[in-house]
Amino acid sequence: MTDGEQIVEKTKHTVFVSYSHADRSEALPIIKALEDAGFNVWWDGLIKGGVHAAQETADVLERARAVLVLWSKNSAKSHWVQDEATRGRDRGCLVPVSIDGHEPPLGFGQFQFIDISGKKNNPGSPEMQKVLHAVSALHEDIVSPVQITSPGAPQAPLIARRNLIIGGTATVLAGGTIAAWVGGLFDGKSQPSSIAVLPFANLSRDPEQVYFSDGLASEIRSELSRNPLLQIVGQTSSNSFRDKQDDAKSIAKKLGVSFLLDGNVQKADGQLKITTDLIDGDTGLSKWAETFERPIADVFAVQEEIAAAVASAMSVAMSSKGKRGDSHQNGGTTNIAAFDAYLRGRDLFELHIDETSERAALAKFEESIQIDPEYAAPRAARARALAVIANQYVSSDERFRLYDEAAEEATRATEIAPEFAAGFNALGYALFYGKLDVKGARTPYDRAYALAKSDVDVFSRYAIYCARTGRFSEAYKAIDQASKLDPLNASIFRSMGTIKYAGKEYDEAIAAGRRALEINPERNSVHGDIGDSYLMLGQLGKARQEYALEKNSLITLTGKAILEHREGNRAEAQKNFDGLVADHGDNGLYQQAQVLAQWGETDRVFAVLSDAQKLRDSGLIYLLHDPFLDPVRDDERFNDLLLQLGFL
Fold first, then answer.
1. How far apart are CA 174 and CA 170, in angstroms?
2. Percent over 70 (pLDDT), the chain
3. How far apart are alpha carbons 153 and 127 in whole angstroms?
4. 230: phi > 0 → left, psi -120 to 50 → alpha, else beta; which?
5. Are the beta carbons of 265 and 274 closer than 8 angstroms?
6. What spatial distance separates the first Cα and last Cα of the chain, rounded to whole Å?
7. Taking 80 as the threshold, does the pLDDT of residue 157 lie above it?
8. Cα(609)–Cα(644) distance, rounded to whole angstroms?
9. DSSP state of 269
10. pLDDT for the residue 109
């Protein structure tokens, strides 16, 4: 058998068309449209003489990927059609169509049907396109139906891909029914669809339960991000509308999305009540709403139900690879206590207030892990918390221990959940920043980026790693993805600025910094970053103005020491350098090397860099493309250091 014959055999009779014989003349054009679109259609006109009709019908009905039922006044009375529709419904592959405007009979009214009565059955009509989209969605290896403009017109090829939907064209949830056809609910929406999950309101009596409502919204956002056909706006941008009075259309426009998911959560006496509302960003009108009432232990199932329902209502459903399956494999848990501790830890960690709050978050992550040792999400989060504490708050001896623990914890997260992007992201961070293992960090960073669908944190960290290691085209692509998915996240634009700075694109670095400050005028370090760019452009007056506005003394003391030296104010330059040493000690070794390089004191530069390497100063990650170190870049010792760290 040839390859072509194998393909034909594999895909033979993938669409089963059920209709009443009285409607044969109406059925034939629909069958032809399906065949013209590239589908292999079975209908009873194909039954050959001598073949047992009932057996062949049953066999094809079991194999077909889509059961297209043509409802009419005639077929609604047919026991044969009802039996075939029942099998399609039970197999999760029913596509109901009305050819005369007649509604399906009792037992099938919960499914939204496509009305192609009258002239709507023309192959080029929007209604027929909906039929083709619905059938296409049920084929594992088809991305979209062809667009038929007229009978007999040349047809575009069908494109292979993964399964588009879960268990059929409709998702039915306990407590309510949601049926939405691929291409059937929202006309004119571009693909991939974009959505922002707004922070869910906490309607519980206890105001401290905000962590839970926020965490639930975040988990639903993560569930949706498993779908490669959806673009999910990042948490920071979505949460920026928590207390604002903007209307839905305004919010959607500012975020650049087609849809908003809003909701509220009540949590009391072991019960959950979650109300969700999917809003069309163009009209501001609700397209779907549902209330879920469950025991709190069912929160994980509810998250998946909401995500699947939203995806279905947006006319795309979860891919087979994106389905949760074993929750541990994807970083999740089935233990509500572990989940709760993780959410509390994440709420604390995202505050980034001081060492006390970071360690409190760490304790919650450790509590979650103790409850469920196979829960990868808190392990990845614990690795991140350990790395932050090591980088910002402790001395060298403890720093080594914490960074080593962070790498071990992140490694364990990746072993538990090999499809969990955040675990690989945390491992890359621990290896790169904590162990200065430039080469070792590449594999987990690349893996995290490959797994991430809409995780802006993964995109941003991957972009920074790529920039630090000279992969600028990849860095620009990833940070652009992050900025589009989280357009109101000041930290993303701060990262973009540092990436542009490393690429010596100083004007663009300044523009990115300005955008970060527009979003959050209080964002730390950005004025200093802009000052560095002005310094490299030789615009010393503007650099001085920016340093005066910066609160991060590690940046300002470094910048001012260089600035004053350039202007000939040696005493003032030394004063700033002495302040850098006094205030930051070993944590500022790399910055000391930057100043000394700009002062032309080459031997002192390498003495300080040697100490920084011994103490694993994370500032060394800037080494390859740091313009402040350009004066010593041609020294053999610089090249040796790059080799030792794995940059070359």
1. 13
2. 80
3. 18
4. beta
5. yes
6. 52
7. no
8. 12
9. T
10. 57
